[in-house]
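Input structure tokens:
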């Protein structure tokens, strides 16, 4: 980190890359002072028009067309890696070797072997004072964080069951262009894309998963046309008459058993008409339950069977989130109860937490730290067990 502050770059200018770029721009305006100056240095993308536009839009000093330029840049200290999964390992290892702090999008890599190698590289880099983290963005949602704290407090009794769904519709069109999202083999489709989110949310409540069973994978559209140009994010575009096979799953479902007891049922889809981004779950405990729906992320529903002498939560009620809940006060410019909050805010809180750690702020004075690469590897091992279960007719597969 130079005397001018922390220099930031983002590799990847697609949908999630733009979310990272916007988050770094807003991070210093949340949660008061404490951070050194943050310089928005560069956004890199192999497709120069989107790199240039993203840099202009989010106020970065320049754009680049290769990740190698970011690795070699003396004015860059912190890098978000937001590109296709199969590119993560090469880029992250090179960035760490170049002395950069790295925030990598999930899933950590395209294979278990690559993820394991990245964990090793991150552990070695930590010895040089470098921070390597993975973004598990939904843990920053105030409603999810609040319910996590509520269940952990024991106020709802002992955990029994987690029931969650994450439905999206970005792959509903069978004539949408093929891209890297549809390549990679069983378990690398909807399961890796949105199932990665749902599974770590389940572990927030149930703890570590011991085993997976009843895994199912389904591909609704077995082929897709080849694009005539660049495919950016979930956007469509002109396509040819040629078609290529889809190699991974449009829908996935599975059951889990948690180490500490209790079970979970999880289903994800990228072909759910009418559900552009529906993440919802319920948590059942011996003394109550709680539910969350990301279509209305500013409130949660809680049922408490018996709260002893304190009846503020007894019964069933809707809790409107506000300054007394995680991330709300000073995390939002208008932090009054009931003010709208969404997924983009989670990226801001994630970026702020990462910059705080890079800057050396004590954990006690910071937002909760981002997960390390070992946590990202665990998430991949869990999803790999789901794929193995599906290929074995739903057999129980232990999670290493």
């Amino acid at each position: 980190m130079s005397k001018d502050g922390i220099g930031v770059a983002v590799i990847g200018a697609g949908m999630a890359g733009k979310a990272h770029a916007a988050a770094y721009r807003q991070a210093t305006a949340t949660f008061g002072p404490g951070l050194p100056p943050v310089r928005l240095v560069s956004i890199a993308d192999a497709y120069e028009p989107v790199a240039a536009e993203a840099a202009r839009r989010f106020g970065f000093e320049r754009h680049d067309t290769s990740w190698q330029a970011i690795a070699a840049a003396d004015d860059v200290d912190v890098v978000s890696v937001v590109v296709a999964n199969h590119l993560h390992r090469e880029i992250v290892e090179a960035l760490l070797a170049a002395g950069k702090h790295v925030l990598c999008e999930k899933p950590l890599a395209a294979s278990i072997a690559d993820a394991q190698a990245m964990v090793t590289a991150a552990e070695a880099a930590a010895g040089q004072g470098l921070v390597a983290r993975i973004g598990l963005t939904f843990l920053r949602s105030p409603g999810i964080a609040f319910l996590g704290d509520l269940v952990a407090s024991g106020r709802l009794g002992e955990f029994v069951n987690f029931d969650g769904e994450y439905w999206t519709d970005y792959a509903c069109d069978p004539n949408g262009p093929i891209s890297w999202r549809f390549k990679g083999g069983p378990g690398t489709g909807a399961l890796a894309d949105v199932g990665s989110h749902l599974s770590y949310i389940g572990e927030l409540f149930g703890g570590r998963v011991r085993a997976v069973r009843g895994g199912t994978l389904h591909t609704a559209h077995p082929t897709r046309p080849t694009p005539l140009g660049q495919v950016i994010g979930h956007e469509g575009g002109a396509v040819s008459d040629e078609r290529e096979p889809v190699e991974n799953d449009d829908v996935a479902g599975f059951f889990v058993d948690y180490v500490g007891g209790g079970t979970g049922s999880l289903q994800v889809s990228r072909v759910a008409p009418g559900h552009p981004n529906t993440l919802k779950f319920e948590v059942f405990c011996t003394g109550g339950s709680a539910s969350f729906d990301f279509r209305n992320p500013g409130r949660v529903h809680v049922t408490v069977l018996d709260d002893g002498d304190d009846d503020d939560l007894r019964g069933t009620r809707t809790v409107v989130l506000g300054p007394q809940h995680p991330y709300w006060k000073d995390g939002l410019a208008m932090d009054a109860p009931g003010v709208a909050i969404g997924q983009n805010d989670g990226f801001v809180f994630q970026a702020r937490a990462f910059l705080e750690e890079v800057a050396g702020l004590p954990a006690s004075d910071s937002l909760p730290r981002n997960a390390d690469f070992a946590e990202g590897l665990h998430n991949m091992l869990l999803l790999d067990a789901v794929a193995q279960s599906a290929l074995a007719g739903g057999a129980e597969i232990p999670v290493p």
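Residues 373-391 form the longest helix (19 residues). DSSP finds nine helices and 18 strands in the chain.
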